[in-house]
From TrEMBL:
Pfam families: SSF. One of its GO terms (molecular function) is symporter activity. It is found in: Cell membrane. It comes from Diploptera punctata (Pacific beetle cockroach). This is Sodium-dependent multivitamin transporter. Signal peptide: none annotated. One of its GO terms (cellular component) is plasma membrane.
Length: 596
C-alpha cells in the first residue's frame, strides 16, 4: 500500500535535478550528436539526395523497424499513455490488436505501390495518378501538420518536466532542438535512423525503470494488478457499439487500424524509411518487426501507469495539488521515488527527451524531402529548364533540414502563448491523417477516380474532419474515481469523479470519440472523391487520370493488366462484316479462345 506522503515531496521540497542527472542527460545528447558527426564523415558524406534522404537504400531491417516505432512513439505518447491507464483504465491497450490487423494491409497492399515507384516523396505518386494540383494539396496538408506537431511534441514534455523536476523548459527545448537539428542536418537519414535505435533503448529504459521500481515497491507485479483491480482500473471488455463512448473495442480496433494505416501505409515519414531498404521483402519484414517492438513499448508504458497508480491510489497528486495535469504523473513519480538515487532521474528524462528527439528528427528529415521533391525541384526545372543536379540537391536538403529545425524551435517557444490551441495542434495530426489516407486509397484502389474527385474529396474530408475534431463545446471525458483519503490532513480528503456532465447537452457530432475522427475523414474523402469522379467522368469534364497498372494495389493492378491484355486480343481479332460493323474473329490460335 502506498500513498504520496511516503514520497520525497512530503517535506514540501520541489523536485531538483542533481549533478549526475545532468551528466546522464548530457551524455545522451553527446552520443546523439556524435552519431550525426560519424555519418557526416563516412560513406558518401551525405553529398547526394539519395544518401542524405534515403540512406543510399543500404540500411538493414532491424534499425529501420525500430526507427518506424520511434517515429510513432513520441514523448507525448509516453507521458500520455501512462496517465491514460492511471486516469481511465486499461481499455486503451486493446488498440495494440489493431496494429496486428493493419500491418499486413500496409505491407502487402500499399507498400508495393510506393516501392515500385521509388520516389523520395510519397506525394509524387499523387501527381502520376491524378495531377500536380492533387500532389501539392496533399503535400501542403502534410507539411502543415508536421510543422505544428514537431513544435508541440518538443514543448509539451518540456513543460511537464519543468513543473515537476525543476528542469527549466528553456534548457529542455533548446538542447533537444539544437542537438536534433545538428545531427539531422549533417548526418542525414542514416544518422536519424541509428539515433532512433539508440534513443529507443533509452525510451524502454525510462519506462522499465518505473515498471521495475513500482513493482518492487508495491510488493510484486500481482500486487500492482490487485490494486488496479480494486481501483476499477482494469477494463478490457467494453464492446459497446456506441461511437460516443471514448474507448471501446470497436473504436480502438477500427479507429486504431485507420490511425496506424494513415501513418505506416501512406505517411511520408514512414514511407521514406521503408524506402531506405533495397528490396521490397526487406521493407515488408521491417514493418512486421516494428509491430511487436511498438506493442512491447505500448504495453510497458501502459503497465507503468498502473505502477504509478499503485503508489498514488490513496492520494491523487492532482487532487492534492501537487501537479496541475496528469501528464506530469510520470516525472512526479520518478522524483518522488528515485530522486535520491544519483542518475536515475537523469536516465528517465533522457528517455523522455529521446521520445522528442526521434519524432522531431523524423519530421525534419521528411519535411526536407517533401519540400525538395515537391516544390524546389519542379521550380528549378521550370526556371532553368533542366533537372536539379544531385550535388545541389544534397546541399539544398541540408539547408532545408536546418531551416525546419530552427522553425521547430520557434514553434515550441510560441506554443507557450497558444493557450487552447495547444490541444488543437496535437489533434490535427490525427484529423489530417484520415483524409490523406482516404486520398491515397482513392488513387490506389479505384481506377475510375480522377483529379477533380481527388481534390474535392480531400477538401471536403479535411473540412468535416476538422469541424468534428475541433468543433465544440465537447463533453469532458469521464475519468475514474480519484481518492485523497491517504493525503495529509491539510489536503482535500475526498473522492472525486471528473467529467460527469449530461451528454444530452452536446451536439451529437461533438460527442463522438476521438478514435473515430480518422475514420470519418477517410470515409468522407473516399465517398466524395468517388461520387465527384463518377459525375465528372460521365460528363467528360476532366482529362483521363493516370491508369498505369503500377499505380494501383497488387490485386487491382493484376485485374487491369488482364483487362488490358483482353482488350488487345479483341483489337487484334476485330474485323468488319459486310455491313461495316466491327465483330470479333474467333481463331483457334486466339488467346481469347484458349482462355488466357
Amino acid at each position: 500500500m502506498f500513498v504520496c506522503t511516503d514520497g520525497a515531496m512530503e517535506d514540501g521540497e520541489t523536485g531538483k535535478f542533481g549533478t549526475w542527472d545532468y551528466v546522464v542527460l548530457a551524455l545522451m545528447l553527446v552520443v546523439s550528436a556524435g552519431i550525426g558527426v560519424y555519418y557526416r564523415f563516412t560513406g558518401g558524406r551525405q553529398r547526394t539526395t539519395q544518401e542524405y534522404l534515403l540512406g543510399d537504400r543500404s540500411l538493414s531491417v532491424f534499425p529501420v523497424a525500430v526507427s518506424l516505432m520511434a517515429s510513432f512513439m513520441s514523448a507525448i505518447t509516453l507521458l500520455g499513455v501512462s496517465s491514460e491507464n492511471y486516469s481511465y483504465g486499461t481499455q486503451f491497450i486493446v488498440i495494440n490488436f489493431s496494429y496486428g490487423i493493419a500491418t499486413p494491409i500496409a505491407a502487402y497492399l500499399y507498400l508495393p505501390v510506393f516501392f515500385k515507384l521509388q520516389a523520395t516523396s510519397a506525394y509524387h505518386y499523387l501527381e502520376l495518378r491524378f495531377g500536380q494540383v492533387t500532389r501539392l494539396a496533399a503535400s501542403f496538408a502534410f507539411s502543415l501538420q508536421m510543422i505544428l506537431y514537431m513544435g508541440i511534441v518538443l514543448y509539451a514534455p518540456a513543460l511537464a518536466l519543468e513543473a515537476v523536476t525543476g528542469l527549466p523548459k528553456t534548457i529542455a527545448v533548446v538542447s533537444i532542438g539544437v542537438v536534433c537539428t545538428f545531427y539531422s542536418t549533417i548526418g542525414g537519414m542514416k544518422a536519424v535512423i541509428i539515433t532512433d535505435v539508440f534513443q529507443s533503448l533509452l525510451m524502454f529504459a525510462a519506462v522499465w525503470l518505473i515498471v521495475i521500481k513500482g513493482s518492487i515497491d508495491a510488493g510484486g507485479v500481482l500486487e500492482v494488478w490487485r490494486i488496479a483491480v480494486e481501483g476499477n482500473r482494469v477494463e478490457l471488455d467494453n464492446f459497446d457499439p456506441d461511437p460516443t463512448v471514448r474507448h471501446t473495442w470497436w473504436g480502438l480496433v477500427i479507429g486504431g487500424c485507420f490511425t496506424y494505416l494513415s501513418l505506416y501505409a501512406v505517411n511520408q515519414t514512414q514511407v521514406q524509411r521503408l524506402l531506405t531498404l533495397r528490396h521490397l521483402k526487406k521493407s515488408q519484414r521491417a514493418l512486421w518487426v516494428s509491430w511487436p517492438v511498438l506493442t512491447l513499448l505500448s504495453l510497458s508504458t501502459s503497465f507503468s501507469g498502473l505502477c504509478i497508480y499503485a503508489f498514488y491510489h490513496k492520494c491523487d497528486p492532482k487532487e492534492s495539488g501537487q501537479i496541475s495535469a496528469y501528464d506530469q504523473l510520470m516525472p512526479l513519480y520518478v522524483v518522488d521515488t528515485m530522486r535520491h538515487m544519483p542518475g536515475l532521474s537523469g536516465l528517465f528524462v533522457a528517455g523522455i527527451f529521446s521520445g522528442s528527439l526521434s519524432t522531431v528528427s523524423s519530421a525534419v528529415n521528411s519535411l526536407a524531402a517533401v519540400t525538395l521533391e515537391d516544390y524546389l525541384k519542379p521550380l528549378y526545372a521550370r526556371i532553368y529548364g533542366t533537372a536539379l543536379p544531385e550535388s545541389r540537391g544534397g546541399l539544398f536538403s541540408k539547408i532545408l533540414a536546418l531551416l525546419y529545425g530552427i522553425l521547430c524551435l520557434g514553434i515550441a517557444f510560441a506554443a507557450e502563448h497558444l493557450g487552447g490551441v495547444l490541444q488543437a495542434s496535437l489533434s490535427i495530426f490525427g484529423v489530417v491523417g484520415g483524409p490523406l489516407f482516404g486520398l491515397f486509397t482513392l488513387g490506389m484502389f479505384f481506377p475510375s477516380a480522377n483529379q477533380l474527385g481527388a481534390v474535392s474529396g480531400l477538401s471536403v474530408g479535411l473540412a468535416i474532419a476538422l469541424w468534428v475534431g475541433f468543433g465544440g463545446p465537447k463533453p469532458a471525458p469521464h475519468m475514474l474515481p480519484m481518492s485523497t483519503e491517504g493525503c495529509p490532513a491539510d489536503s482535500n480528503n475526498v473522492t472525486t469523479v471528473v467529467g460527469d456532465e449530461n451528454p444530452d447537452d452536446y451536439f451529437i457530432l461533438y460527442k463522438i470519440s476521438y478514435m473515430w475522427y480518422v475514420v470519418i475523414g477517410f470515409l468522407i474523402t473516399l465517398l466524395v472523391g468517388l461520387v465527384i469522379s463518377h459525375i465528372a467522368n460521365s460528363l467528360r469534364k476532366v482529362p483521363a487520370a493516370g491508369r498505369d497498372p503500377d499505380l494501383f494495389v497488387p490485386f487491382v493492378r493484376n485485374y487491369l493488366k488482364r483487362k488490358h491484355n483482353l482488350d488487345e486480343d479483341c483489337e487484334d481479332n476485330m474485323v468488319k462484316n459486310e455491313n461495316g460493323i466491327n465483330i470479333v474473329r474467333i481463331s483457334t490460335n486466339s488467346s481469347l479462345n484458349s482462355g488466357k
